[in-house]
C-alpha cells in the first residue's frame, strides 16, 4: 500500500467518526448542520478506478446512514454526487482535468470554489429532498440546502487550509 491509499483510508474513517461523534451534534437554529464527511468525495483522487470510487462513496454514505438511522439518504446523495463529479470537474477545471494534470491544492481559488460549491449544493439538495420528500416542503428544502451548504463549504475550506501541505 502506498501513502496515498493509506491517506484515503484514514480520511474515510476519520471523517465518518468526526461526523458521527462531533458534527451530528451541531445543529444551529434547528436546521443548519455541517456535513464535513463529504470532504472524502471532494478530495478523492481525480483519476481513480471509477467503480471503486462509486463503491467507496456509497459505503461512506451508508456508514453515516447506519449511525444516523436515516434510511439511505446519505448513501443516495453521496452516490449521485460521485457519479456526476467528472462533469463538475470538467466544468470547474477544464483542460487540466481533461489531461489528468489536476491537483486541487495547485488550482486557482475560483475554480476550486466553483467545484466545491457545486458538489456540496448538489449533495445537500439531494439529501434534504430525500429527507423531506414532498413538494410542499420545497422552501424548507431550499433553506436547509443553502444554509447547510454554506456552513459545510466554510468548514471544507478551513479543513483544506489546516491540512494542506502548502500552509505547513
TrEMBL record:
Residues passing through the membrane, by range: 12-32, 75-93, 113-133, 145-163
Has keyword Kinase? Answer: no
Q: Does the keyword Lipoprotein apply?
A: no
How does this chain sit within the bilayer? Answer: Multi-pass membrane protein
Main location group: membrane
Taxonomically, the superkingdom here is Bacteria
Q: Which UniProt keywords apply?
A: Cell membrane, Cell shape, Membrane, Transmembrane, Transmembrane helix
| Compartmental location | Cell membrane
What does the similarity note say? Belongs to the MreD family.
- UniProt protein name: Rod shape-determining protein MreD
Q: Which species is this UniProt entry from?
A: Autumnicola edwardsiae
